Structures are given as structure tokens and as C-alpha cells.
Amino acid sequence: MKNVAIFGAGRIGRIHAGNLAALSGVTLKYVSDPVADAAGSLARQLGAQVASADQVFADSAVDAVVIASSTDTHSDLLSRAAAAGKHIFCEKPIDLSLARVRSCVQAVQQAGVACMIGFQRRFDPTFNEARSRLDRGEIGNPEMLIVTSRDPGAPPVDYIKASGGIFRDMLIHDFDVFRWILCADGDTAQWLSATGSVLTDPAIGAAGDLDCTAVTIRTAKGRLCQINTTRRSAYGYDQRFELMGSHGMLQCGNHRPTEVAQWDAGGIHGDNPENFFLQRYAAAYRLEMAHFFDCLQSGSPFRTTVADGLAAQELADAASESAKSGRPVNW
Amino acid sequence: MKNVAIFGAGRIGRIHAGNLAALSGVTLKYVSDPVADAAGSLARQLGAQVASADQVFADSAVDAVVIASSTDTHSDLLSRAAAAGKHIFCEKPIDLSLARVRSCVQAVQQAGVACMIGFQRRFDPTFNEARSRLDRGEIGNPEMLIVTSRDPGAPPVDYIKASGGIFRDMLIHDFDVFRWILCADGDTAQWLSATGSVLTDPAIGAAGDLDCTAVTIRTAKGRLCQINTTRRSAYGYDQRFELMGSHGMLQCGNHRPTEVAQWDAGGIHGDNPENFFLQRYAAAYRLEMAHFFDCLQSGSPFRTTVADGLAAQELADAASESAKSGRPVNW
Amino acid sequence: MKNVAIFGAGRIGRIHAGNLAALSGVTLKYVSDPVADAAGSLARQLGAQVASADQVFADSAVDAVVIASSTDTHSDLLSRAAAAGKHIFCEKPIDLSLARVRSCVQAVQQAGVACMIGFQRRFDPTFNEARSRLDRGEIGNPEMLIVTSRDPGAPPVDYIKASGGIFRDMLIHDFDVFRWILCADGDTAQWLSATGSVLTDPAIGAAGDLDCTAVTIRTAKGRLCQINTTRRSAYGYDQRFELMGSHGMLQCGNHRPTEVAQWDAGGIHGDNPENFFLQRYAAAYRLEMAHFFDCLQSGSPFRTTVADGLAAQELADAASESAKSGRPVNW
Amino acid sequence: MKNVAIFGAGRIGRIHAGNLAALSGVTLKYVSDPVADAAGSLARQLGAQVASADQVFADSAVDAVVIASSTDTHSDLLSRAAAAGKHIFCEKPIDLSLARVRSCVQAVQQAGVACMIGFQRRFDPTFNEARSRLDRGEIGNPEMLIVTSRDPGAPPVDYIKASGGIFRDMLIHDFDVFRWILCADGDTAQWLSATGSVLTDPAIGAAGDLDCTAVTIRTAKGRLCQINTTRRSAYGYDQRFELMGSHGMLQCGNHRPTEVAQWDAGGIHGDNPENFFLQRYAAAYRLEMAHFFDCLQSGSPFRTTVADGLAAQELADAASESAKSGRPVNW
Asked: Under a CB-based contact definition with an 8 Å cutoff, are residues B165 and B320 in contact?
């Protein structure tokens, strides 16, 4: 039986807490959140206790922590958890500063604890099936990856100001998909060119950020990746990718709430994609939490490690730099 | 807080037990099954006790029972539950004998308990969305319903022998869909013609049953319904319907495990439908159990009543008779 | 070089005339139509001469005739063409009276001319591909055929009054599809049950006809066919079929004008099917005319013979009778 | 009546000749090709005469010429046709040298003849419908364009050596699509970054060319375009684009030979896209030739002018330069 504490009782914290509480062999012991009401209500709902970070780290019965608090608290909690010998599940991004991310990686390695980063797309049934087929050789050698990643609407400008910019906040997932899919055999980014615009809301530009981006990466093996994103998609959340290989192509589509098609005088109408990430990735969130505890139990390596968190962040930094300078980054 | 007992710890019983145990405000108190091991393991897993039917009915703390045992035990358990004043969720079919079904209906009415029949398709997100759009008038008046209902493979011949035949065992769901969709405004079947064949396995014919059927129903308002079924679909479980209305058509497709399309030299390949009813109707089973307890709590009527169970069975009987005689049945 | 005369310069006549005039080795010599203007304009456009039926049959240079005039003239023109030793392409139906159809069959056989009936669906690229795959054994033995056949709107009531009824006028194509697909190995209809309603326009009922029908056919080998039709489909012309076989299913969809999908706040919207038969079957009309002259040239048998015309008409008659009596027809 | 001469009796020349010969009001008078057999056979088939370029330009009865000969002859024929006062339809590219293209543009302007360039994608029913919807405002302001352009296989290396490289030979169409769709309101490219690889055939690399490319363009208004191409797609010819706008997205899919879906134990299988450009763009080639003569007749401007040919070529040159230098091009 694993005893777990969760940091963060907000939107994503509640998802993770509910998923881990439903796992057999796992007990949610503590909920920790500076907002006392949020912590209390989540703890009550799941039969856990409210605790401070100090209490959590001091309790030797706690085996693992889930860090789902605000981004600026991640690196501190992660380092303290490592020091306390707790295994760690940490939401992306680890930190907006690459230096702090690197010291987190070091802390984890020195402590010898297991640390998984929450790149939930790797657990999405559709995306994961594509990766499995790639591994089985069904499309031969991977050559080109086209990633479409569009949010239904931008977060508040205050959030954007503190987000580290669209490449670190939003495309970090896409950079992880690039690495997971196109670099599965150890290939690495060699050349990256990013650009972007402010097309959906001038306030985003005034905050120093972009809302639409176009990134291209070429790997050491010559593979090509193109990522297109926007903060505001009129038809909702759009999460697709296409992987072109030497023997075929894998096209990963959106999931939809229902399979109803309405045929009428105006045409044939199908559902929009699932509303946003909580709906689209509901299964993925469940499966990644199960994976975390399965690996803790079996000692198998995680599918997404702290090193993956670092590597995605390095690409995000490079893209930010490229978009600013108008010139590519080479490795 | 509702205390519940479940009869039946087999495949569908475990589904229902898991779903109801996850509902807040609901406690699974007893599991009852003649197979002691099955009852014991399910009870242990969900923190319930094993009990005999006598114990269940004698315990005044039990508010409701879920009958998911073998079909031949349904009518007896249902009648006893009604007599004991327990609310009832009963899997379809209530009984293979129409006479016994009618006496169950009477028992429920006399006892004044609530009784819901497990026609889970009414809770399928896709089918239910179609019904909602029909209710909202999006396709005008309903005119024709085409139901495709194909199983991936036939059950064992011994099961078939005791099943009451394909119309009562398999099409009962399709007859309920017909009533739910095409008779939503009180319309009724007026003419029914059924035929069928043995095309997939001669053993089914030797057992006196059919494995492929074609049913047509015309309602009092002149609406037309065609149902096609087979026990053996090479590509798996196929559950679709199309509802033609005066202003448009609603086409309900299958659900699929993933949204991966593979494009290669052989064409463009998508997933087959979800494997079988446990997968396709996973959400429906969850939603119908929630609906059962929501209605018990609020006093709202069930979406599928014991009268619906009777009405579907009457259509199944008529279809069996029509297929045997080669002549239609008129009401 | 084949010299050809066409009877009928109306809508379908102009299609056939244009298609045959574009074939190399074929010369359109005469256009014949009681409406002098129609004949004249079509003849001018394609470099042909206007002629009476007498002139056509008297001209020994005419090798073949295409009969695309009004239905009530078909059997007379067909018999005269046979007597004159001309090869014949005749639009369906040959005649509304089975007796006259049979005497046409006899006339053709006695004269030893070749006679093809215009069941153009057999030349539709999608439907024809399905038949080819069936022949190649890709889905094993055929078991069930579901035909969806819906017109965008009813013809004028005056047309309906003279049409012989919906089964002879509209479903004749569907009965031919049934025979072509499900009876490709010589199987035959053994039991047929038809019903129908007047749901779209009371004037159709007042004219003694139906506007929605549901037909079921069981063959000697136990195969099942269901056909659903309506005269008025709100979303346009709908021509699909599904063929279930022991090893798989072939689903034939509609053709669409464009492959644009519009994603917006209201969902994902695709094109309706091609507008009506002239658009959907444009390729089929071209291919059937080429087939007619290819077979004349090579001596190969036609894909659709006068015997097919007779057989489809017999099924239409049986369906009319069944729908009237409310009882099935047995063979 | 317009009298026309065609230069080039190869693959694309025969397509254009067949299409223009079928237009009413247009006469194909001459076929000119250095390969006498090709010219002769095409001329015979369409009732035209074989002629040298000198004869064509000397015949004052010739109103227009169609230049479908090898690329290295285009600019010379175009200049001579302009000088002779003939209207011109010229296949893309005008010439591999931008300087020669510019002098062709000048020659056309000075002569006052009409000159249309064969960017047939602008006449594809699907792509053209997307442009029409954009013009009607159905998706609001255009923001991002994702172009997928994949050939089924590379041409012979000798062809590639003389082709000017993949950007000038293959992507010229994609650059025209970018301008036609994303710059419809006069917007222009401001920043272009291109990269590429040799992934499908080392011989292409040895010839100094690339076989996979990724291009990004940002316009003066901040719109973003990404183009991905490959010379070798295992599943065939793939021609799609997605246009993201402020109010919705237009997704243009491939056309397929048939609408058959086969459902079997291996999944649900649909047709690959139309085989290659002659099939996919058959309608487009027909429509562009009709457009050419319609505009000559009515005096309306062409949808694709010689200025469009120049502008696409400038983008192709910029992309070649960017891919070589590894740095973006700015305007």
C-alpha cells in the first residue's frame, strides 16, 4: 500500500487526486494547498487529511507526492520531496528557469528517488497507439511529423504574463510529442526555427507574448517536424498529429463526445472535438497516474522522466529565442 | 444514503456493482450469488457482505436491489423484492414468459416500488444525443428508423437453447430502441413482419433458432422501422441506427477504441468498433446506474420502466411468431 | 464504325446522346423525338439529323438504337427495333405491364439482336467496386444486403399517376441491385414482404401510391435483403448499400461534390451527397454507354440484359402486391 | 470561334488538347512537337494538323496557343507567341531563371496579349470551394494555412537534375496555393524559412536536391503558412490543405476513386487518394481550359496570371536559398 500526498487542490489537482484515490493499493493521505477551503473540500471528499508541506515531508509514512500546485512552486516542492526521499509525480513544466530545472534533475538523481513528469499525451489512447505502431514497424522509418495543437481560447492575460510565454506554457507538450515520436530511437533536434504572431488578441501582444506559432525542427537524422498552434480555435480544442513514415502514415484524430452525424439541408454535421484538455485527456490522466504507481510497484522506468521534462523545456527555450531573433537555433 | 444488494456476481453483475459502489450516497451492502466464490470475491473487492436472498429481503436497511443474475431467476427475485418493498433495477429480459412478465408488472404496481429495466442503450451518449435532438425537433417528424445490430459471435449453443430465441434474447434491445425512438410520442406498432435464416452456424439451426434476422415494423402513424441483425459479424460488434425525419436524418455510428487512421499502400485503415457490449456500453452502464439512484433520490420517473420491459417482450414474441409462420402480425 | 439513332431528346436522352457521341467508333446519326424542337436542338448540337421512327428503322445503315423516350413508348420501339434487326439499349423500365415486357424479351430473342437495359447503378464506380470485391471473395459468402435509396423530392403527382407506382418506378433499381449483388451466384428471391406509407405528401396517397417503403426479401439460400426508400429526403439524394458477408462487410457511400469540411462553433460540416441521379451517376451513364458499344464490338454479353429488366419488374410487381395485401409473396 | 495551336504532345499536352477540343467554340488547329510521332498521333486523334512553331506563329488565323512543351522551351515560345499577338496559356513554371520569367512578363505586357499560367489547383472543385467560402467570410479572417503536398514517387534523377530543384519543380504549386489562399486580400510574404532533407533516395541528394521539405512563411499581416512535402508517399498522392480562420477552419481533403469502405477483421478500410495529378486534377484541368477560353471570350481577367507565375517563382527561389543557407529570407 502506497501512501500519497498531493500538492494543489485546483483543477488539475482534483483530477489527479480522484484518479489516484480510485487505484487499488494507493491511499491518498494528505491534501496540501495554500487555499484552505480547496484543500479541505478535496480532502473531505476523498477521505484524506489536510496538511502543510512541512507535515507531508516530515511524515515517513508518505511514499510519494503528486505536485499539481502552481508552476512557481514546482521546483521548490520537487527538491524538498527529493531530499525527503519521496517519489515524485510533477506536473509540467518543472520550472520556467532552465537553471532551476537542471538543479531539480540533479536533486532527483542524488536522492535516488523516482520522478515522473506529467506529459499526459503519452498516455492518450490514440497517440499511444500511434507510438506502438511506430515501434512495431508498421510505417517503417519515421520521416515527418506534423503537429496541430490549438486551444479553444486564451487564458487570462495575467496568467499569460506569468506563463513564460506560449512556447514554454503551451508548446512544451508539443515539444515532448516531437521527442517521444520522432526521436524514439535516440534522434535529437539539430536545427529549430520558430516564428509567431499576435492574431487573436492584441492584449497578448501587449503582454509580450504570441498567440499563433509555427515551429520547424530538423533532427540529426534529417527528420522534419512542423508544429502549428493557436490560442484561440473557433471550433474548440484540436489535438492531432500525423506521422509520415517510409511505408505509411499514422494520422491521429481528435476524440468526439458522440458519434452522431446529422444530415440536413445544410450538409452533414458531426460533433466538434472534446471540449478541452480535461475531457480530451480524461483517459490519459487516469492512465498516467496508474502508470506512476505501477512503476513504483514494479520498479520499471517511467514513460516520462524528469530528463524528458528538461529536454522539452530546452526546446521551448530555443523556440522562444528563435521567434524573438527571427533566426534558427542550431545544436 | 441508499443501501443496496446485488443479485448476480457474473460479468454484468460485476459491472453494475462497480458502478454503483462508485456513486456517492450509495452503499453496496450485499452481494448474493449461488456461486459462493464469485459472490465472495466481488464482495471483498467492494467492501460488501455476502448474503442469501432471504437475508437480503429480510434486512429492512436494504433500500434497493439490483437483479443481474441469470434470466430464469429474474421474475422470482423481482416479485420477492417488490413484496419486500425494495426498489428494483432488473436486467433485461424480465422473463421469457410473457405471462410471468405481466405478473411481475402487477407485483411492482401493487407494491408501489420503483422498478427500472436495464435497457442500457438508452443511456449510450450517441444514441441518447440522437433522441435529444429528435425531442428538440432538429429533424422534424420521425419517419423511418434503420437499426443495425450485429454481434461479433454467437454465444454457446447451450445458452441459445435456453435463451428463448434470437428475437427475445438479442433483438429485445432493438425493439426497445424502436419504441424509444420511433414511438416517443406514443405511437405504437401496428404491423410487424419478421424473417430470418441460419447462415453462420448450422448448430444454431439444429437448436431451433435463427442467427440472422430481418424485421420490419409499421406504426399506427405509418412510420417504418427495419432492423437487421446477425449473431456473427466478422469485423466485430456493430451497433448503429439511422433515424430519418421530415427535415433531416440522424446517423448514430459506432464508438472506436482510438482515432488512429493508418494510410499505407493498402488503403486508409481505421479502428474497428469497440469490441463488444461491455466496451461499447461502458459509459451507458455507468450512466444508467447513476440514473437509477438519481431517480430514487428525486422521485423522478425512470427512463426505462417495467412497462417498457413488457412492451419490448411483446414485440419479441410477435417477431418470433411471424418468423415461424412466415406471415406478419397485426395489432 | 457504328451508326446509332436515339429516341428521346429529354433529360436522360441528352445525357446518353452526349456520352455516345464522344465515343470513338460511334456516330450519332439520328435523333428522334415527337417534340420537334428538342430533337432539332440536340441533333444540331451533336451533328446528327432529325428523323422519325419509321426513317430510323428503314435505314439499314443504323446498327443500334438507344431508347430513352417516355416509358409508354419503350415496348413498341423495342419490338420494332428488334424486328428491324437493330441492337438495342433501352432505358428502364421496359414497360409497366409484365405481359408486354415478356413479349419484348421474346421479340429480342427471336430477332437475335443484342439488348441492354439501362440499370446504370451497375456501372457506378463505387457499387461496381463492391461487386468486384464480392467476386474476388474479399468478404466471403454474402449474407445480408441493406439498401438505402432516397430521392430528394417527389416528381409531380401527374407523373406518379402514370408511373406504375413507387415499386415499379423507383425501387426497380433497388430490385436490380438486390439481384446483381445478392444473387450473383444464381440465387433467387423466395419470399418478399413489402410495406409502405404516405408520410411526405398526401397528394401521393390520393393518387393511390406510397412515398416511403420498406421491403424485405429472403432468397433460396437464406440471404436477407432490406430496402428502405423515400421520395423526399431533406438532405438530398441518398444512394448507399451495405453488403454483409461471412468474412467482412462492404459499405458503399454517397459521392460528394467536394471534400471540404468546415469546422466551426456549430460542429464539423461536410458536403451533402451529389444532388440527384444525373450528378451521382454521371460516370455510370458514361461507362454504361461505353460498355454497350464495347460489347457490340467484341460480342461479349452485356452486364444488364433484357432478362434482368424482366426479373426486376417481377420483383416490383410482387412488392406492389405485397404492400397492397399486407402479406408476403412466396416463390 | 477560336483557333488554337498546342505546343507539346506529351502527357500534359494530350490532357489539355483533349479538353480544349471538347469545348464548343474552340478549334484545335495545330499540334506542334519535336517528336513527330507524338504530334502526328495527337493531331490525327483530334482532327488537327501538325505544324512547326514557325507555321503556328505565321498563321494569322491562330488566336491562342497552349504551351505544354518541356520547361526549357516555355520562355522562348511564350515570347514569340506574345510577339505574334497570340493569347497564351502556359504550363508552370514559366522558366527556371527568374530573369527570363521577368522578361516574359514584360513581353506579354508590351504585346497586350492575355497570358494565363497553368496553376490547376485553383480550379480543383475542393480547393476552389474553400477559396469561395473564405471570400464569403464563412471562417472570418484567415490566420494559418497548413499545406500537405506529397507525391507518390520521385521522378527519374535525370529529370530532377534539370528541374531546378524541389522548391521550383514541386513546391511552386504550393507557393501559388499560399498566395491564392492566404494573400487573397493583397497580403504578401515577409519572412520565409525553408529546410529539407534527403530521406527517400540518396541519388536525389547526390543530384544536389532534397526530397522532403518543410517551409514556413509569415506574411506582412502576421499570417502563418506551413508547407510539408515529400517526393515519396507510400500511400500515394496526397494533396490537402487546412485554412484556419478567426471563425472556423476549412479542411480540404483528398478525392478518392470510390466510396467503398471494407469492414473486416483487420479494421475499416477506405480507398487511398486518387493515384496522381492526372487523376486528382482531371476536373481541374478541364475547368482551367474552359476558364481560359471563357475569359478570352468575355474579356474577364484570368484567375492565374503571368504575374502569379512570377510571384510563385520568387518564393521558390527564396525557399531554395533559405534551405541552402539555413537562414530565413526577409522581404
From this structure: yes
